[in-house]
Amino acid sequence: MSALLPEGFRDRLPPHADSAAEIETRVLSVARSYGYERVDPPLAEFADGLATRLKAGALRDAVRFVDPVSQRTLAIRPDLTAQVARVAATRMGHHPRPVRLSYAGSTLRLRAPELSPKRERRQLGCELIGLDSVAAAREVVGVAAEALAAAGAGGLSIDFTLPDLVDTLAAGPLPCAQVDELRARLDAKDAGGVAAIAPAYLPLIEAAGPFDPALAKLRVFDATGVLTSRLDGLQAIAEAVSGLATLTLDPTERHGFEYQSWLGFSLFVAGGPREVGRGGTYTVLREDGAEEPATGFTLYADQLGQATALDRRRLFLPLSTPAEDGARLRREGWVTVAALEPGDTPEAQLCTHVWREGSVEAVS
Amino acid sequence: MSALLPEGFRDRLPPHADSAAEIETRVLSVARSYGYERVDPPLAEFADGLATRLKAGALRDAVRFVDPVSQRTLAIRPDLTAQVARVAATRMGHHPRPVRLSYAGSTLRLRAPELSPKRERRQLGCELIGLDSVAAAREVVGVAAEALAAAGAGGLSIDFTLPDLVDTLAAGPLPCAQVDELRARLDAKDAGGVAAIAPAYLPLIEAAGPFDPALAKLRVFDATGVLTSRLDGLQAIAEAVSGLATLTLDPTERHGFEYQSWLGFSLFVAGGPREVGRGGTYTVLREDGAEEPATGFTLYADQLGQATALDRRRLFLPLSTPAEDGARLRREGWVTVAALEPGDTPEAQLCTHVWREGSVEAVS
Q: What is the least distance, in Å, from the CA of A199 to any CA of chain B?
């Protein structure tokens, strides 16, 4: 009875919890090597302040409670990036730009998001605040790819999108009176719907798939050259990670990228049905009301759980093994498991090896 | 305005967040080397189930909310050890004993505990479930001491207590009708109060302080020998860590050890006003209603925050530094910070070194 957990919550047991911790350490270690320093915002903060930096409506799914100290409503964070943006804009507002920040932490939701039953999620990532240039995106996409490789995630693929593509075209060479509807039809790959609203946009549906041919189609489609700088930038970003990942392009994909500016990307690994992370360029609201550009990525650590196999060799130390032997073996990298009473056995302690008469023997 | 956080919550900024993460990694790495594998229970679970394993009344200070999915009350954990005990008793109930588990996670309280304004705390530790013997306690106290040393905490001192001492004496050679009141007077070091209730217990007030003389006084006090096995055990545990810490003994200290059985200990580090952790022997409720012995320790990571100074050398890579140079320097252990636009400087990026014409130069 007491073993039951609410839907969307779970215990992570050995060896999965160690494996998940190791993955986080490796991801954040790559981030750190590129100068991303860690910030660690609190689990809860004032709900109204948090709401200003969350996607519209996101607070509805947050756990909220009245704080007996302030008598105000607090919310448990449903997302960490909003807090990192707050830190960058406020307490680190004086720091010269760009600021490179990394983070890892748990998030909680009252209701599970679509496509996933989880209500507690572990989120980690990097944010580069102050720039959304091609150089910034090259770095961020590169760090994401290298971090996933370090975490043991094989078969990485990156799907790029251009979230403001339709707006840019509609405001320029291809005017359209129903932009919202057009975006929805393009997002759904609904050729009939697109043809009914703005047939000039139909080639965009075809300009999706493996990166190079899709980009070539986009360049042909962009007869007026209004997209040239974006496409050049996208190509430069793709070149930076072409050796690390399979690349695809879905230029009109908008779902989940509503808050990204010119660039978005989703990260997938082999064998994973869902994306393991996403990122792109966006804007951060400064305390003075101005906006500043930013680029970042977030990984959903739970999706990476099975990617890294840890060394689980365990060396059993029989009763009365000298303490110095154990200390030396641990220094040599062994996990030692000491017998604490006469009946203890290597098998009961899931040990792969035994320390016997001064040498390591494999358990047969 | 949006920078304000509720009382008892805070942002951890660079370099403190990296430092705190490094401390956790080091503590858990020592635990792992002794065979303690990590478990990671969820932030929230059913409030009634959690309450059965928390100290009486602890749920009052937990953040609770109604789960829209189950329509039952959930609680955010105010403490992690209750969850670890649940995992050991239920999902790992079939595992041969002893089971060695480690954990690290955040806890949340509606109201701050006494002596500390913090409402979110980071808790990490080890639990050895299935044994509360002297051998078990020697291992657990030793792991705690080694973990704190690895985390850079200097000047460790360990204060031991014997939580069931008074009960043992009152049930044996020194009967006392007012045991609860006697314990409270002893805990308060109130000699007058002790004399009024049971003057035979007065020597216990003096048997506190540096470990060896205090233990010697206890041995003299224990004329009937009812405490001999406990005192021998305590001495053996103390010998195991005598080289790693300053040891004290406060045999009647009960505060916060109400749930410990025969042994309790508090951990202090130099310069810290409050304890950085505590531990001892206790019992875990199994699913079949039986109890099993256990031994463990918990560290309050926030109290260790300043103990470890990280290397903050950062190497600035000017614009157009070849990607291979950066990759090689990171492999060599450098944190590299790449210029992403012409105006960027090593100073703005808080860099200590610059990569210039193929060599590392210190920023003057």
A: 40
Per residue in B162-187, pLDDT tens?
A: 999 999 999 999 999 899 999 999 98
Q: Is residue B319 part of a domain?
A: yes
Q: Is A246 annotated among the ligand-binding residues? A: no
Contacts of A119 in chain B (CB under 8 A): 44
Closest alpha carbon to B351 in B337, B361, B331: B337
Q: Provide the domain count of chain B.
A: 1
**Do A43 and B18 count as a contact with CB atoms less than 8 A apart?**
no
B187 annotated ligand binder:
no
Chain B residues with CB inside 8 Å of A5's CB? 42, 45-46
Question: Which residues partner with A1 through β-bridges?
Answer: none
DSSP classification of residue A274: S
Beta-carbon contacts of B180 under 8 Å, excluding residues fewer than 6 positions away, are none
Using 50, 70 and 90 to split pLDDT, how confident is the model at A273? confident
Question: Which tens digit of pLDDT belongs to each residue from A284-338?
Answer: 999 898 999 999 999 998 878 665 567 789 999 999 999 999 999 999 999 999 9
DSSP β-bridge partners for residue A126: A102, A297
Q: Is B251 exposed, middle or buried (0-12, 13-18, 19+ CB in 10 A)?
A: buried
Compute the nearest-CA separation of A163 from chain B (Å). Answer: 23
| CATH number assigned to the domain comprising residue A131 | 3.30.930.10
Q: Best of A40, A127, A308 to disrupt the B interface by mutation (most B CBs within 10 Å)? A: A40
Domain that holds residue A103: 1-156+276-310
Region B234-242 average pLDDT:
95
Contact: A5, B43; criterion CB under 8 Å: no
* pLDDT for res B306: 61
- Chain A residue numbers with beta carbons less than 8 Å from the beta carbon of B323 are 240
pLDDT digits (tens, 9 = 90+) for B70-87: 999 999 999 999 999 999
Q: Are residues A245 and A296 in the same domain?
A: no
Q: What are phi and psi of B105, to 5 degrees?
A: -175, 175
Position B308 pLDDT exceeds 70? no
ipTM: 0.92
Residues of B in contact with A131 (CB under 8 A): 340-341
Q: B2 to chain A: nearest residue by CA?
A: A49
Q: Find how far residue B325's CA is from the centre of its chain.
A: 43
Q: For residue B273, is pLDDT > 80?
A: no
Contact A42 B337 (CB under 8 A): no
Residue B347 lies in a domain: yes
Is B127 in a helix, a strand, or coil?
A: strand
Residue among A40, A86, A340 minimizing CB distance to B136: A340
Supply B167's token pair. 């009960």
Does B358 reside within a domain?
yes
**pLDDT score of A186 more than 60:** yes
